[in-house]
Specification:
With about 180 residues, the chain is α+β, with helices and mostly antiparallel strands. The protein has six helices and ten strands.
């Protein structure tokens, strides 16, 4: 999304709308499996020597469920403000003001950055989608917490009734404790 700076000066405040393909975010090392085109609504103003862009970004990304790894649709709406200037000393004084050297500004990298900041740490699928998830696979099975506690109690009861064989690597350590008990 390229914005000519002359349009901002001529038509202040300059409003713009558009759609931006950000599918290259899927290739990055993040949880985004798929992402729709992002709808961008923006307004640009010139405040002193700073171009201020107020952006609203809307779209939908597909993320993995934290429990089952099934696809979860995550709609997002981000409000962001980005500041730019053509004056070198203004950009060096403020961290949040980016220096631009051309007469046009490509907002795509800044839009992508704001989308990446919006990706949640984890999302959970609806209960309907949970029923579609597999309950077991090769070498694993999904259990409820109650089932897991019951299984642990059964295992604990079985272990209390018999002596466990000593690990051969720890046999010499067992002899040390046997000597200590005989001396008492």
């Amino acid at each position: 999304m390229i914005i000519p700076l002359q349009k901002i000066k001529a038509h202040e405040p300059y409003t713009f709308q558009g759609s931006l393909d950000v599918s290259d975010l899927e290739e990055m090392n993040n949880d985004i499996r798929r992402i729709s085109d992002v709808e961008v609504d923006g307004e640009a103003t010139l405040v002193g020597k700073v171009y201020q862009f107020d952006l609203n970004l809307k779209g939908t990304m597909i993320l993995p469920c934290a429990r089952t790894l099934v696809d979860v649709k995550y709609p997002f709406s981000v409000d962001a403000t980005e500041n730019f200037t053509k004056v070198d000393y203004v950009a060096s004084e403020e961290e949040e003001i980016f220096l631009i050297e051309q007469e046009v500004l490509d907002l795509a990298p800044y839009i992508k950055e704001n989308i990446l900041l919006e990706v949640p740490v984890r999302v959970y699928s609806d209960e309907e989608q949970l029923s579609e998830a597999e309950d077991e696979g090769e070498g694993w099975e999904m259990r409820t917490e109650d089932t897991h506690i019951e299984q642990q109690e059964i295992t604990h009861e079985e272990d209390n009734g018999e002596d466990k064989p000593v690990d051969p690597r720890l046999a010499s350590l067992q002899k040390f404790f046997d000597k200590d008990q005989n001396n008492e």
